[in-house]
Amino acid sequence: MKKNIKIVSFLMLITILLSFSNAPKSGSVRKAFLLDSINKKDSIRALDSINSEDSLTNFKPKLYKKNVEASYYSDKLNGRKTASGQVFSNKKYTAAHKKLKFGTKVKVTNLANNKSVIVTINDRGPHTRKREIDLAKRPFLDISHNKGRTPMRVSLEIIE
After folding, report:
1. In this predicted model, what pLDDT tens digit does every residue of 20-29 receive, in sequence order?
2. How far does the chain reach from its first CA to its final CA, in angstroms?
3. Which of 36, 81, 115, 146 is most deeply packed, by most CB within 10 A?
4. pTM of the model
């Protein structure tokens, strides 16, 4: 029995190592996995993976709004359902917008340092008059120039 467990573990290790060997060798390529939760079981599946380099060549971003305010969700909202019915997590690349359709992919670029992330709209908000978009905490911190300061000035582009 122990021998079978060792063999299965060894095969799993080889499979994992082979999957890493097929990854791109460039250090500048970073994949952002947009995650979505399945309603009943709270298990997570990868919806899409987007190369940050590919976002400039394979997608046609269309400017939606420039120089608007963005903030991020509070940690106390983790585990609650969003307006789209998904379970919210601050670790996912998701956002809330007042008017854009659910599932819309938006490229959010920080105007202070030109860093950007791609998020999926899955909730309604923000519920503050001046703010245009609420990001989950992970994408907000990825593009923030002074970690955690909110709000920040961003431009929004819709990915077609």
Report:
1. 655 544 433 3
2. 53
3. 36
4. 0.62
Residue 156 near residue 107, CB atoms below 8 Å: yes
Q: Would you list the DSSP string of 94-114?
A: EEEESSSPTT-EEEEEETTT-
Contacts of 13 (CB under 8 A, 6+ apart): none
- Alpha-carbon distances of 54 from 31, 51, 60, 98, 118, rounded to whole Å: 10, 5, 10, 28, 12
The token pair that represents 104 in the structure block:
């819309």
Instruction: Report in angstroms the alpha-carbon separations of 128 from 68, 72, 120.
Output: 13, 12, 20
- In sequence order, what are the beta bridge partners of 108? 117, 156
Tokens read off for 35: 């995650």
Q: How far apart are CA 16 and CA 136, in angstroms?
A: 29
Task: Note the pLDDT tens digit of each residue in 70-112.
Answer: 998 888 889 999 999 999 999 999 999 999 999 999 999 999 9
Phi-psi region of 87 (alpha: psi -120 to 50; beta: other; left: phi over 0): beta
Query: Which residue type occupies 57?
Result: T
Summarize the confidence of residues 52-78 as an average pLDDT: 78
Nearest to 96 by CA among 114, 76, 71: 71
